[in-house]
Amino acid sequence: MSKLSKEQFVDRVDKITLFARVTPNQKLKIVSALQSQKEIVAMTGDGVNDAPALKKADIGIVVGDATEVAKEIADLILLNNNFKTIISAVEAGRLVFENIKKIIFFILSNSFAEVTVILGALILGWPLPLTVVQILWLHLLCDGPEDFILGFEPKEKETMLDGPKRMDEPLLDRTGLSLIFIVSLFSGLSSLFFFWFFGLRQDNLILGQTIAFMSLAFSSVFYIFSCRTLRKPFWRYENFWSNPGLFAVVGFSLFLAAIISYLPLTQRLLGIVPLEPIHWLAIIAKGLLLILIIEIAKHFFGHRWNSGKKSV
Fold first, then answer.
1. In the listed set 34, 54, 81, which residue is the last one of a domain according to the structure?
2. 241 domain-assigned
3. Opening angle at CA 77, ends 73 and 78, nearest 5
4. Same domain, 162 and 277
């Protein structure tokens, strides 16, 4: 290392897999060279001489019995003095990142579906398909608990097979936005069609609003299972039964959505009317078709959702 210029070392650093007998200054040089290559650098150490490199690194890691100087500078302290904990920490970080992606996908798909319904009606000069109270109900009682429970999804077996993410990598890339666009457009347009076909066409505004509202409430319950994994079909998801809270939330949401159109209190509150079997069949058909569309989209786009170099 001492014989290489700064420029020469920067060019070669990503091709070197092992450094030995390095000085504190050389450790700092290695960290700086890797960072100049846009790498995210984690540095381990335990002594005072490691302090400059620990501070320079993106993540400074020390063991529990390291010097106080090293501990003060470090970002992560391994209290069990076991370097295997670093792998567990990386795994936990990737799990959080993936679950945030799933939650954002679910939230935005639902929200833009509602925007599509409202915007479509305004463009066509129709009455509003959803009232303010209905929109609040969708966000607080239909989507809210499901958004929350998605954050407890366990890791997928491919989580540690993906290479490191870039530091500037967005949560939503073009692939993610494409999936959201497809889901929200179909969900919104189908609800808008129900609003016209069952409501406006028969000069029954309240019935049209009811079925538009109920179709949006039920659709998220259907496709939340497809949102649990964006890599593979939901029926091949190895953790399908590993989040019991999700099944409880889905069951509660289905029960709540099914009874509110028949209870006098919620009828007055939401401005809805009871639905007939043909309406429920249309809503269920939409939910099943939405799952099919998501799974087809995942087949074409899903392999690019979790981008990055494969780890070796």
1. 81
2. yes
3. 155
4. yes
What averages of pLDDT result for each successive group of 10 residues across the chain (312 residues)? 82 87 90 90 90 93 90 92 90 92 93 96 96 94 90 90 78 84 95 97 96 93 89 90 93 90 93 95 95 88 54 42
Q: At what angle do helices 244-259 and 205-227 cross, to 10 degrees?
A: 170
Residues 126 and 261 in one domain: yes
Q: What is the DSSP letter of 306?
A: S
Q: Does 311 fall in a domain? A: no
Q: Whole-angstrom Cα distance, residue 26 to residue 38?
A: 19
Q: Which of 298, 296, 286 is nearest to 220 (CA)?
A: 286
CA separation for the pair 278, 285 (Å, rounded) = 10
The helix/strand/coil state of 104 is helix
**Closest by alpha carbon to 218, among 260, 182, 173, 185?**
260
- DSSP-based three-state secondary structure for 92: helix
CA 309 – CA 312 distance, rounded (Å)? 9
> Which pair of structure tokens corresponds to residue 244?
């019991």
pTM score, whole prediction: 0.85
